[in-house]
Amino acid sequence: MTVLQIIALVLVALGGAAVVLTPEPLRQTMVLGIYGIALTLLFMVFQAPDVALSEIVVTGIGLPLIILAALRKIRQQEDQHRARAGEREEAK
Amino acid sequence: MSFLPYAVAAWLFVIGLWGVVSSRNLVRTVLSLTVVQSSTYLLLLGVGYRSKGQAPIVADIPTTSKLVDPVVQVLVLTDIVIEATVTALLLALVVQAHKRFKSVDPDDLRPLRD
Amino acid sequence: MSRVVRLGLFVVAGCGLATVLVIGFTGLPDFGGAHELVGSVTNLTEPTLRHATDVVTALNFDIRAFDTLGEEFILFVSVSGVALLLRHLRDEEEDVDTTPGIEEHRFSGASDGLKLVSLVLIPLILAFGAYLVFHGQLTPGGGFQGGVVLAAGPISILLAGRYLSMKRVAPGRLLEAADSLGAAAYAMVGLGGLIFAGIYLKNFLPLGFSGHLLSSGEMPLNSVAVGLEVSGAFLLTWTEFLDQTMIGPPSGSAGE
Hints:
B: 114 residues, mainly alpha, Helix Hairpins, C: 256 residues
C-alpha cells in the first residue's frame, strides 16, 4: 500500500462523513461534488482509469444538475402551496 | 494496514445507512444513498487490486506485465452511470410525494387513504 | 415508534452490522494479493484475440456484452419511469400554453462571463465527447463516459442563459428517438452476431489492426450505440426536471 493510497482512503472516509452530516440539501450537493473528486483520486491510485473517468463525469455533470433541478421544483411547489393557502384564507 | 480499504468500505456503508435513517428531509435520504453505493465501488476495486500491478491498458506496455483485475472494473464502471439515473428516479418520486403531502419530512408521509 | 427509539435501535443494529462486516472482510485475500484466474487469463489473451488495447472496454462491449445489454436497459427503464412520473405531474397543473409572458426564459443571474465561456466551450465539449465514444477500445473511454460528456453540450446552452434555444436544439422527440435508437441498435448488433456467426452478440466484423480506430470488430458500433443511448437518456432526464421549473405558471417566486 503506497502512501498516496492511504491518503486517498482517509480523504474518502472523511468526505463520506461530511456528505452525510451536512444539514441542508443544497450544501450537501456541493459537498457531494468534492466527495466525487476524492473518489476519483482514489480510483486513479487503484489503477482504474476507466472507473475514475466515469466517476468524475457523472458526479461533476450528471448528479448535481438533477439534484438542483429537483430542489428548485420543490421550492416552487412550496410557494404554490403557500399561495393557494393564502387564497383560501382570504376567501373565508 | 492492508485492511484499511475494507475498513473504509464498512465505515462508508454504516454511515450512509445512518444518513438514510436519521434524515428529516427526503432529498438528504437520497443523497446519503449515494454514499452507500460508493462503499460497494470501493469494496469491489479493493478486491481486484494486485500490488505493483498497472492499469489494464496494453497500448504501450508489454502484454505480459502485471495488471490489476479488469473484471471488477467493468462492474463498477457501468454501475456508476446507472446509479445516477436511479437517483433521478428517486428524486422524481420525492417531487411527486411533496406535491401530494405538502412536506418532504418522512415522518409526515401517510398512507393515501387517510 | 418515535424517532428517538428508531435511532437508538439503529445504533445497536449498526454496531452489529459493522462487526459482522469487519469479521467477513478478514476472510478476503490480503489487499494486493488477489489471485482470481479469470482476470489473469483475460489480461493475457485478450489483446491477441480481440486486437483491443483497452481490456476493460473489451470486456464491457465484447466479452461480457450481454451484461452491458442488461444494464443499458436498466438505464432505459429508469428514464422512462422519470418521464412517466414527471409528465403526469405536469398534466395536473394549469395549461402552460395560455399563460402569458413566457417568451424567452433567461437566467437573470448569469453574468456575461458565464454566457461567453459556455458558448465557447460547446464545440470543445462535443468534440471531446465524440473522441471518448470512438476511442473506447484504445484508451480509457467508451460509450458510457462519452455519452455523459456529449449530453453536457446542450446543457451549456442552458447555462448561457437561453433555455428555449436549448429546447430548439434538443427537442423532446429527438431525445426520445436517440434514446430508443441507441438501445435498439445495441440489440440489433447482437442480432448481427446471431445471423452471421451463430451466437448472439458474438464479434462478427473483421478485427483489424490493434491500435487503429476501426479495429476490434463490433466494439466501435456497440460503443456508439451506448453513447447515443446514454446521452439521450441524460438529456431527457434533465429536460423533464427543468421543464417543471423553467416553463411553469408564474408564481410568486418566478423572478430569479
